[in-house]
Amino acid sequence: MGKYDPSRVEPKWLARWEKDGLYRTDLEEGGRPKFYNLMEFPYPSAEGLHVGHVFTYCGSDTYGRFMRMKGYKVFEPIGFDAFGINTENYALKQGIHPAVLTAATVHHYRENQMKRLGAMFDWSREVNTSSVGYYRWTQWVFLQLYRAGLAVRKRAPVNWCPSCLTVLANEQVSSGECERCGTAVVQKHMTQWFFRITAYAERLLRGLEYLDWPETSKKLQTNWIGKSEGAEIAFQVSGAKARLPVFTTRPDTLFGATYLVLAPEHPLVFDLCSPNRRQQVEEYLEETRRVREFDRVAGSSEKTGIFTGAYAINPATGENIPVWVAAYVLVHYGSGAVMGVPGHDQRDYEFAVAHQLPIREVIASQPGISECAYTGPGLMVNSGPFTGLDSEQGKRAVTAWLQEQGLARPQVTYRLRDWCISRQRYWGPPIPVVYCPGCGELPVPESHLPVVLPEVEEFRPLGTGLSPLAAVPEFVHTTCPRCGGQARRETDVSDTFLDSAWYFLRYPSAHHHQRPFEPGVTRRWLPVDMYMGGIEHVCMHHLYARFINMVLYDLGYVAHEEPFKRLRLHGLLIKDGAKMSKSRGNVVNPDEYIDGYGADVFRAYLLFIGPYEEENDFSDRGIEGMARFANRVWNFVNGPAGPEGRGVPMVEVHRVIREVTAALESLSYHTALARIMELTSWGYRNSSRFSAAQRREVARTLALLLSPFMPMLTEELWETLGEDYSIHDQPWPAYDARLLQAQEVTIVVQVDGKVRDRFQAVRGLPEGEAVALAMSCPKVRASLDGQKPRAHYYVPDRLVNLISRPGQAAGTAGGPKG
Hints:
Blueprint: H1 6-20, E1 34-39, H2 51-69, E2 73-75, E3 79-80, H3 85-94, H4 98-113, E4 127-128, H5 132-147, E5 151-161, E6 166-168, E7 173-174, E8 177-178, E9 186-195, H6 201-207, H7 215-225, E10 227-237, E11 243-248, E12 259-262, H8 269-272, H9 278-289, H10 293-298, E13 305-313, E14 320-326, E15 337-340, H11 346-355, H12 391-404, E16 408-414, E17 419-420, E18 422-423, E19 433-436, E20 440-443, H13 473-476, E21 477-479, E22 486-489, E23 493-494, H14 496-500, H15 503-506, H16 519-525, E24 530-533, H17 541-554, E25 567-569, E26 573-575, E27 578-579, H18 590-597, H19 599-608, E28 616-617, H20 622-638, H21 651-665, H22 669-685, H23 692-706, H24 711-720, H25 737-743, E29 744-751, E30 754-762, H26 767-776, H27 778-784, E31 791-795, E32 799-803
Parallel strand pairs: 1-2, 1-24, 3-4, 12-14, 24-25, 26-28, 29-32
Antiparallel strand pairs: 5-6, 5-9, 7-8, 9-17, 10-11, 10-13, 10-16, 12-15, 13-14, 18-23, 19-20, 19-22, 21-22, 26-27, 29-30, 31-32
Helix pairs in contact: 1-24, 2-19, 18-19, 19-20, 20-22, 21-22, 21-25, 22-23, 23-24
C-alpha cells in the first residue's frame, strides 16, 4: 500500500487551480443563487500567520466549499488590513519603514502561507487598506459622514496610550489597558475627530433582533450600547437660580437621595464651589486627572470625593442636600451628575459610609441596609404619598408627579460613546480636512481625493499630541479649496477600524476604480451571507461596520441596512492551558506542520479537535492521528480492489451523507469528520463484500464528503477515480431518506438503568459500534462525567445500558433480559 505524499499532491493542484482560475468568481453572471462567504482579513503585522488565523480561514473555507457543492455561486474574497498601529509598531520594532515592511509582509503572507492553505480565495479581488486605491475611498467614506453631520471635531476627555503615543477609542481599551500593547491608559483632554455613532444607538440595538447572530454577540453589543431608561430630574441649587439635571434609572428611590455627586469634569464644578472650598476642590480635581477611568469606576474600593460647599434641594423632600465631587461619577454618563441614594446603590452606600453621609431606606427589604445597600425591587417606604407602591409602579408615578411640576422628564441614555477616529500616528489614511484662516474648517473636495500619505524618513510618533505628519511642511501647507488662500491640512490619520468598517463593500467592486462600490454588483452581492471571525471584534469591528453600513444606507449608497446577515464566531485555541499569545510564548507557527503533514491534514486536524465555536486545546499529538486517517482514505481509494463480492446493503453510506450534511450545516466540523472516519472504517470492514460498483460508490462518496476539509487530497483522489475535473464543481452527494427510514431504528441509551439519550442506527448494528455510538451521545458523556462504564448491556436494535456504579446488575438495570 502506498502513502499519501502531500509534498507532491498539494503543489500540483494549487498550481492547476491558479492557472485555471477555478476560484475566480464572475460576479456579473447570474444563474445560481449567490453566497458571499466572508472571513476577517489579517493584519500583516508580524512575521507571519499563526495557527489562529488558519483556524479561522479553514473553518470559513470549509463551509464555503460545502455551499459551492450545494449549488451556490460562492464569492470568497481575501485581503489585508495593512494600516494601523499593529503594523506600524512592528515596523518600529524592526527598524524598517512601514511601507517597505508592509509590502514584504503582505507578500510573505500571501505567497508563502495563505496560498498554501488550499482555500478558495478569489485573489483577483484582493484589497489592501494601505494602498492609495483603497484609502482614497476610506477618505470618501469620511466625507460622507462629515457632510451628514456625523463626523465632528470636538474637545473631549480621551484615552491616551503612553506607549503607542496615540488616542484610543473606548472599545480599544480593555480593563484600563491598551488592547494592543497592554500599557495602562491615561485620560487626556484633546481636540479630536469623532463619528457620532451615538446617534445610531437605538437603531444598532433594535437591529440585533433580526440578525442571525450568536446570542453571545447580541448580548455583548447590547451591553456595550448600554441602554438605560429612567428620568432626568432637576435639582434646584440652594440660593441660586441654577438647576442641576440628574439622570437616574431609579426615580422610585428619590426620597432616599441624601446628597448629589458631580463628575470631576462637570462644567459647573467651579460655579458651584464656595470660595472657602475652592483650593481643596482644585487639589482633588488634579488628583483625579492622574487616575485612569477604569480605576475610577471599577478599581479601588476607596470612594474618594470632596464637598463643594454648595447644596441642592431634593425635589421630593424639600431638604437641602450637599453637592460633592467624586471620581466614581463619569461626565459622559447621563448628565455627569448623580443623586446619591446610599440605601439602594452600593457605590453610593460605600461613599456615604466613607464620608459619614445619611443613609435612608425607601425600598423595604428583609435584610435591611445596615451593612450594604438593597438594590432590588420592593414596596416603597418613607416616600410620602408614594409609600406602599410597588417600586416599578413608583418609577412611573414619581416621574409623572415631577413632570407636572416641570422638574423631570422621562429619558433614555446609552453607555455607548462617540467613536474617536483620530490617531496621532503616521501609518494611516490622512483625514481629508483643511483649515483656512478665513473660511475655517473645510472638507477636501471629492475631486481632490486621495489625500496621499507622504513618504517620510522619520515616522516615529511624536508623543506631543500631534501626528508625525505635522512635521512635514510640504504636506501641512496647502491651498484652501474655497478661497484659494493659504491653508493647512489636518495632520491626524484615521483609525484602522475605519479601514475595516467597509472593506466587505469594496471586495465585489475591487475592479471598479471610479467609485468605492459599483451599485449593480453591490445590490446583487450584499449583504454578506456568512461572516466568520473572533469574539474580540464584536464590540469593535462588527459594531463599527454596522454603523458605517447604516449611514451609507441612509444616504442612499447601499440598499441593505445591515451588512452581515449571518455571523458565526469561532472559539479560542488553547495551548498549555492558556490562550495563545506572544507574551506567553505559546503561539503555534503553522508552517512547520504544513511542511511536515501538508495543509490538508493540518486543516482537518484543527477542525477535528473540538466544536468550532468553542474553546479547544491544540496538541501536537493529535495531528498524527489525522495524518493516519488521510493515509487510510488514500489507500482505500488507491488500493487493490480485490475479488468482487456479492454486495452489501448501502444504508450506512446514506446515513453518513445525511449526518455529515447536517453537521456541516451547523458548523459541527468535528462531528462531520468523525462520521467520515466511521464510513472509512465501514468501507474497510466490508471491502471484500462490496460489488465493484459499490466499492466505487463508497470511494466517490468518501472523496466528496471529505473535499471541503481536504481539498487537495480529494482532488487527487477524484482524478485517480477517473472522474471529471474538478471535484469542487461536483454536486453535494444526496441521500435516500426513504431507504434510511425503512432501515433505521431508534436505540435508547441508559446509564445505570436511567434513560439518558437516543440515537438513530442501521438495523443489525454490531454491539461494539452500538456501544461506541451510545458513549458519543452528549447527554451520556455528561452523565458518565468522564468515567468509563464498568460494563454494558445490549439489546440489538433496541437498547444500550451502560453500567457505571459498582453492584449494579446489568440484567436488572431497566432493560429486558436477553
